[in-house]
Amino acid sequence: MSIKDRLRGYSHEVEEALRGLLKGKGIPAGLREAMEYSLLAGGKRLRPVLCLCFARMLGAEARAAMPFAASLEFIHTYSLIHDDLPAMDDDDLRRGRPSNHKVFGEAMAILAGDGLLTEAFGLMASTAGELPPGRVVEAIATLARAAGAGGMVGGQALDMAYTAKAGVSLEELREMQAMKTGALITAACVCGAQLAGAEPDVLARARSYGQSVGAAFQIVDDVLDVVGDEKALGKPVGSDEEQGKTTYPALIGVERSMDLARRNAAQAVESLSPFQGPEATFLRDLAQFIVDRVS
Amino acid sequence: MSIKDRLRGYSHEVEEALRGLLKGKGIPAGLREAMEYSLLAGGKRLRPVLCLCFARMLGAEARAAMPFAASLEFIHTYSLIHDDLPAMDDDDLRRGRPSNHKVFGEAMAILAGDGLLTEAFGLMASTAGELPPGRVVEAIATLARAAGAGGMVGGQALDMAYTAKAGVSLEELREMQAMKTGALITAACVCGAQLAGAEPDVLARARSYGQSVGAAFQIVDDVLDVVGDEKALGKPVGSDEEQGKTTYPALIGVERSMDLARRNAAQAVESLSPFQGPEATFLRDLAQFIVDRVS
């Protein structure tokens, strides 16, 4: 089966789980509608899939880990809703549909994000019925650190500061993206391993894979923003800078950006060298697939 | 010692703990400043104090429970920052100072709230080093439910819907306030008991105390908004309704509102009947103090 088909299969499992997770919680109807509008808007479900694959690869039962994996999509979705707000990036569209606040208003969009973030931690805690509480609480700590003010939220604050500033360096861009998008992707891998009770050396490999895949993913995203999906690599760059955002291609050009993405993907594959089985193969192929999207 | 002095003593302990909790987490300076501006703006620290007192009364060590107790103030603070936003209640002042977004801008205020909420769960998870992970994860589940879309966030959504609507009933008001402010106060008591490993019957007493104290607190707050602090009870009411908010005094008058608050305080005291020692006495006196504020 192609990597695309395998990814679609895993995404589908997550999708099914997401559908039921806001039911029976006493959520006011209007709020639940706003939360589901963004949560069920599709997408690759990359973070839950990474979490599940690491958990499975290292011996945990997928069914037991699923609510924890789903919580990663809750957190990712909340961050998109809040990032799209007029006071933030002011985006009217998300995944081809009107963004949350365009449909439900700003107040409800803020609350939908707050609700998704809080429910995420409830989902994580709920897995302690089937998994050892010590593992669950460690994974919660990992995810809170990654999503919090020293991670994803801090990365968005830096992103906004850098958008207003001239002359962002490559090191600043790398650090900002590592916080804004890398931290949650890395935490997805590490949490999956923690839920499976992995030893420190295995956790370090999960972390290395996540950091490398996260960096590759973000660099390729930057490149696709500039050259456009499916287009050739030789085009002039810099158009995204007009919107005030510094990107890898704007700083070092498309060719060197893609070299960097490929080195990160290779590092990710290398991190998984001790592991075998369908999940290990999938994770290796996924790292390669991320950079193959541009070509 | 008077109840005021004892409350001040407990609040001071919490205050000391709050000061150090955002340090050394790699939070960008501007974001940390915005978070601390609201977190360290004073206040009674009622929710952490309740959590600590229940934990202590039932045999847990206060030092071990402190980060969990502090997380309640993180959550309360985030909710105030987001509620004050222009898209929400649009309040320029909070605790006598400019609200967060007036000082740091809307984007930073949204992120400061998101950061506080996420760090709160990190603090909760961090207590598993000293307390049994099974208890910690149960308390996390309690708090996520209380603060989430079926609790505090849902209550704020209802509050906004009711502000736009004529003819809110007493039952609707009661339910909305139970979600918006009652749920977190109740969770503070229940979490404290859970961290101490309390049995179900004791947890039920903690819940009953929290629900009664939370209701009394909110009713008295409504009354104070109408009659003004330290003023007599016989004044004309309804002024708060001009701002579109339905209150207890507007629906049933000041006298009946205060009767209801007193009955709730008595119920709270009754819930604690099996317990003795300084924390039990403090919690009983606190329930009484809440209604004595008006007189």
From TrEMBL, chains A, B:
Its cofactor is Mg(2+). GO terms for biological process: terpenoid biosynthetic process. PROSITE patterns: POLYPRENYL_SYNTHASE_1, POLYPRENYL_SYNTHASE_2. This is Farnesyl diphosphate synthase. GO terms for cellular component: cytoplasm. It comes from the Bacteria. It comes from Fundidesulfovibrio magnetotacticus. Belongs to the FPP/GGPP synthase family. The keyword DNA damage does not apply. InterPro entries: Isoprenoid_synthase_dom_sf (IPR008949), Polyprenyl_synt (IPR000092), Polyprenyl_synt_CS (IPR033749), Prenyl_diphosphate_synthase (IPR053378). Transmembrane segments: none annotated. SUPFAM superfamilies: Terpenoid synthases (SSF48576).
